[in-house]
Amino acid sequence: MGYGNWDHSAYRAAKAYRARRGMEDFGYTAQLREQPYDTWTVHPDLDPFGVGARECRDSADHGNSLPIAVLFDVTGSMGQVPMIMQGKLGKLHGLLKDKGYADDPQILFGGIGDADTDRVPLQMGQFESDNRMDEQLRNILLEGGGGGQKSESYELAAYFMAEHVVTDAWEKRHKKGYLFLIGDELNKPRLAARHIRAVIGDHIRSDIAVDSIYRELGQRWEVHYILPNQSSYYHDPEIAEHWRALLGQHFLRLDDPAAVCELIALTIGLSENRVDVHTGLADLRDVGSVAEAEIVGRALRAQEPRALPGGTH
User: Fold this and answer.
1) Which domain holds residue 79?
2) What DSSP designation does 278 have?
3) What pairs with residue 72 in β-bridges?
4) Is 246 within the bounds of a domain?
5) Is residue 307 over pLDDT 80?
6) Is residue 2 part of a domain?
7) How many structural domains are present in the chain?
8) Which domain CATH number covers 284?
9) Model-level pTM?
10) What per-residue confidence (pLDDT) applies to 2?
11) What is the pLDDT of residues 230-272, one digit of tens each?
12) Which among 190, 187, 184, 69 has a CA at the least distance from the CA of 136?
């Protein structure tokens, strides 16, 4: 995967076509909602079961591939966030490429649910450089379930990213990719071996400590957790403490989920030392994200001090 180039005209034309025909952007979700719940299943293109590896590779078109994974909690009200992202894909790609935040971004989208209760607790797309990233995003099932236990299976997604993703960025250049988890709850207390076996297909016998998975993941990924103001947990101190203990300053609160695309783009630009905060916020205003620039600015200012360009973070 990762071949081809993003075509914004084709993206807009496809979106306009669906609107004229009264078709849902998230057509797979609309299709399944016409069927009994006990028949719902993951879209074949996003099924993590039995996957050897999702790959982010260099190509003739993209010789310096930068892996970016965006995984959405799709339970409850959080299902609105992928819709926001889908409506702003062109802006995300424009900020990354046109503003020079990343040379050859390849983006994977996925969904996270509750492995204890949901029909589809994990969905994993492919790393794409062209309009297929829009297709995979729209094929995510917005199940809307969740177990009501103040936790979702983020740790299962973290395991997949740690064990079933290979990138040329790491293998050739020893460079980390970017992983954004977008949600509003805790990890499960432990990564259950039965969840790994049932959802991913790996023959794991024993449960795994959650912090050990994130330590392994952090060796090859810059992992961020974005908490949008989309539920009553936004101000819950337990949520913040939990994620800060795992990720430190990479825990981000976002006042308005409408700015999630801009926050991701600017976070990458800052981490790649391609832009500073002041210039980055000006870039957002330049592409028409005036209100979002203010929201992103607040999110970044709420972090612990960010390392200066060229330093560690």
Assistant:
1) 8-301
2) H
3) 111, 182
4) yes
5) no
6) no
7) 1
8) 3.40.50.410
9) 0.95
10) 63
11) 888 999 999 999 999 999 999 999 999 999 999 999 999 999 9
12) 69
**Sequential DSSP letters for 111-175:** EE--TTT-S--EEE---BSSTHHHHHHHTS-------SSSB--HHHHHHHHHHSEEEHHHHHH--
The 10 Å Cβ neighbour count of residue 101 is 23
Considering the domain boundaries, does residue 207 fall inside one?
Answer: yes
Dihedral sign for Cα atoms in the order 173, 176, 178, 181: positive
Q: What pairs with residue 73 in β-bridges?
A: 112
Instruction: Give the number of other CB atoms < 10 A from CB of residue 270.
Output: 20
Neighbours of 273 (CB within 10 A): 13
Tokens 């589809």 appear where?
Answer: 120
| Cα-Cα end-to-end distance for the chain | 29
The one-letter code for the residue type at 221 is W
Helices 210-218/237-247 angle, 10° precision: 50
Please name the residue ranges forming H helices in the chain: 8-21, 27-32, 80-87, 89-98, 132-138, 154-163, 168-173, 193-195, 210-218, 237-247, 260-271, 277-286, 290-301
DSSP state of 70: E
> Is 98 inside any structural domain?
yes
